[in-house]
Amino acid sequence: PFSYLDDSGQLTGILPEYLAHIAHALGIRIEQIAQPTPGAEGRALATGAADLIVYVNPDRLAAAVPDATQAFETYPVVIAGPRNAAPVNGVAQLSRKLVAVVERSLNLELLRHDAPTAQLIETGSLDASMKLVRSGEADAMIGNLAAIDVLIQKEYAGDLKVLGSTGAQQAIGFQFRPECAPVVPLFDRALAAMPEAERIAI
Fold first, then answer.
1. What is the 3-class SS of 7-59, one letter each residue?
2. Does 63 have pLDDT greater than 90?
3. pLDDT band at residue 8, thresholds of 50, 70 and 90?
4. How many of the other CB atoms lie within 10 Å of CB of 24?
């Protein structure tokens, strides 16, 4: 739900809503560009093809992201699986299980550290991971609660459910290329001044 192309080809979701608020508050125009694969946004920032991107980091590391705003949202990382599966109490219970996880995501490190004997199946998206669980090719998958919840409600309500929490949290904010770093305090102030009702609506 963070950002995606809707049926009309328009970029929508949580992040575009936040950017629209900031653009209005600061009187600027922000052009949003969809990236084709996970990790492509980092390359776009490094090459100057993008001026800012979204960072998703473990909450304990959010403050270490250079040239970045304060985190404006924090979500738990959860485990999802078949509707008839038993609850899972932490990543360690995924040991020896087939677990689908998005390639190059922060969750790979989490799984390798807390469930080193899990058999990991790397996929191109959360949706691809959920398809593997639904088909029985994976026992479980992990990801951000906000994104997983939307997909379950939209596509997998009869097949999948959240089984438990990993105990990890992910912080979300905006990171700029170094040349644009002076804009960071302006974004922080615009985010801090956002009315609570608008934040809840997003």
1. CCCCEECHHHHHHHHHHHHHCCCCCCCCCCCCCHHHHHHHHCCCCEEEEEEEH
2. no
3. low
4. 10
**Tokens describing residue 47:** 């090459």
Nearest by Cα to 15 from 57, 63, 55: 55
pTM score of the predicted model:
0.76
Strand partners, 82: 160
Instruction: Report the distance separating Cα 161 and Cα 152, nearest Å.
Output: 7
Q: Which residues pair with 4 in a beta bridge?
A: 12
Give Cβ neighbours of residue 41 (< 8 Å, ≥ 6 apart).
Answer: 35, 50, 53, 54
Residue that has been written with the tokens 């924090």 in this structure? 74
For residue 94, give both structure tokens: 């995924």
Tell me the C-alpha to C-alpha distance, in Å, between residue 17 and each of 21, 118, 163.
6, 37, 29
| Nearest C-alpha neighbor of 171 from the set 63, 82, 56, 91 | 56
